[in-house]
């Protein structure tokens, strides 16, 4: 009989302990559920705290906290993207409006009766130039949208950077000589082929030359050389008003070094450079080295010739 009584006492103590433990877990989960409901009402992503220690419940709460942190990161990313989209829309609106306003203005001038044939020819030439700039700008917006959507076809082929860049520089000869810049070109011969897409490589180099011609001051240097297992293309020009704070943002599509946006948006062409280079597996780098602004693209070699 004493053994039976002792067994009943032990069993009762175990039941009481188990009951207390179940109550503590239930209380902790009710508290966590209440905190979660509060987070849903307020939109807060603060971590949920356990009312009482319990390893199993803590694992569940840890998973819930992970989801809350993920939601917070997604909301922050959404806000960042929305802000960037609003800025991009504002920039697109400005960049389209500027040449359109100019075209309309010169068309109105052409309606005048007192214009000489020379003046009419001059105004028509200006209108054509503005229209071509507008066409190029719209094409750039379209290309960026295709790149963002993964709809821009990129081939993986062996490409001769020297042949493409030397031919392109020759094609830009008149623009380079008329730019007023002190131009130097140093393209190493016998470089290995690289992996890329010939059309995309041409677009990258074209955008870099145009960017230097539009925004460079004083000097323009174009180099092509080997560095270890990469071939490096480097375009440098006088930085003008570019600052160290500007450099990390030069590949942003909304970037312009002109804070009042009184000049052409510089970011669109460079944004395309970075997007195309990344799709070809290359790395881009921008730096301010003394008075020179330098953009380098590091191309992966595809073996010697």
TrEMBL record:
UniProt EC number: 2.7.13.3
Molecular functions (GO terms): kinase activity
Organism: Pseudoflavonifractor intestinihominis
Gene3D superfamilies: 1.10.287.130, Histidine kinase-like ATPase, C-terminal domain (3.30.565.10)
Enzyme class (EC, first level): transferase
Pfam family, one: HATPase_c
UniProt keyword Methyltransferase present: no
Annotated keywords: Kinase, Transferase, Two-component regulatory system
SUPFAM superfamilies: ATPase domain of HSP90 chaperone/DNA topoisomerase II/histidine kinase, Homodimeric domain of signal transducing histidine kinase
Organism placement in taxonomy: Bacteria, Bacillati, Bacillota, Clostridia, Eubacteriales
Record carries keyword Kinase: yes
Cited CDD domains: HATPase, HisKA
Residue span, Histidine kinase domain: 91-290
Source superkingdom: Bacteria
Protein name as annotated: histidine kinase
PROSITE patterns registered for this protein in UniProt: HIS_KIN (PS50109)
């Amino acid at each position: 009989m004493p053994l039976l009584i002792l067994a009943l006492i032990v069993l009762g103590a175990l039941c009481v302990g188990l009951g207390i433990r179940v109550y503590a877990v239930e209380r902790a989960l009710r508290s966590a559920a209440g905190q979660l409901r509060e987070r849903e009402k307020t939109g807060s992503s603060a971590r949920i705290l356990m009312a009482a220690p319990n390893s199993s419940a803590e694992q569940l709460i840890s998973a819930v906290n992970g989801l809350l942190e993920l939601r917070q990161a997604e909301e922050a990313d959404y806000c960042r993207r929305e802000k960037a989209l609003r800025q991009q829309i504002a920039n697109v609106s400005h960049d389209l409006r500027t040449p359109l306003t100019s075209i309309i203005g010169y068309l109105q001038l052409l309606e005048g009766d007192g214009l000489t044939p020379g003046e009419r020819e001059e105004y028509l030439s200006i209108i054509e130039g503005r229209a071509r700039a507008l066409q190029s700008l719209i094409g750039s917006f379209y290309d960026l949208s295709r790149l963002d959507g993964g709809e821009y076809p990129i081939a993986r082929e062996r490409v001769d950077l020297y042949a493409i860049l030397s031919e392109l520089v020759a094609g830009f000869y008149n623009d380079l000589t008329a730019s007023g810049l002190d131009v130097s070109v140093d393209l190493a011969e016998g470089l290995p082929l690289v992996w890329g897409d010939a059309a995309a490589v041409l677009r990258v180099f074209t955008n870099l030359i145009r960017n230097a011609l539009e925004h460079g001051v004083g000097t323009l240097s174009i180099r092509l050389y080997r560095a270890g297992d990469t071939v490096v293309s480097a375009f440098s020009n006088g930085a003008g008003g570019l600052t160290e704070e500007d450099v990390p943002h030069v590949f942003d599509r909304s970037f312009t070094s002109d804070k009042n946006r009184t000049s052409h948006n510089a970011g669109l062409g460079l944004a395309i450079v970075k997007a195309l280079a990344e799709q070809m597996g290359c790395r881009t780098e921008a730096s301010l080295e003394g008075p020179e602004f330098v953009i380098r693209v590091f191309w992966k070699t595809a073996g010697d010739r």
